[in-house]
């Protein structure tokens, strides 16, 4: 979708309607998963079952009122959290930099967001910032070198699907081959066999219980969100998948937003429950952010691709 480096520029070729649909579904899927995941963020799995077990099959944003504690009350019904805000900051950075990836520009935007949030939405500061991100952005050299560590597996998987690779004769994605590509690229960031085996475990996990998403003192471990995303990629029902992630508790908004992005990219816009899409609190505002990105890329949005 964009390129990195001074000598490279973004491609402005109009993607196919199918690819446009997957791009939109990746963005909306993340925000939807984020907003649903907020309902159980920082709860244990047993607490999630206690509070939401009876409504899990028909879960909606309004069920946020079931547990409206000090944490959840900071967001309104249908709102997403810092996870999706940061995705939008990346999109804004690409717009401002003409499609080029500029880590320093993003770093500046992130720092401003931390201080002020999105003022046009009535924010007074960025809410929900994770401990790791907070520590990194507070470092004196943050604006000079903001990309010291990175995870590439999710990006590779999404890029692979947007490029239409690894499809069978029926046009369905071969998820195992996507995972292998993700591992091949991501493992180059690691040094030891133990680290690489750990990565492969989370990429290949078939049972969400094995991820232990509400594990004490480890809910923010980045592989848990990545593993959740790749578990979601193996599924075929968006509502059931995001609900199951949400019902695990832990860092549920982060886990569900990664799962929502990957599964959304795989299934497309038609997979979303209509209320989950239309009742996103700031959907019109998000639509405009996407519009500005598409205009920068000289892409035309195909509204028909979004019809259910």
Automatic annotation (TrEMBL):
Organism: Mytilus coruscus (Sea mussel)
Official protein name in the record: Uncharacterized protein
Pfam families given in the database record: ADP_ribosyl_GH (PF03747)
Keyword Ion transport: no
Gene3D superfamilies the record matches: ADP-ribosylation/Crystallin J1
Keyword annotations: Magnesium, Metal-binding
Sequence positions that bind Mg(2+): 81-83, 251, 253-254
Single GO molecular function: metal ion binding
Cofactor note: Binds 2 magnesium ions per subunit.
Swiss-Prot/TrEMBL cofactor(s): Mg(2+)
KW Metal-binding (keyword) present: yes
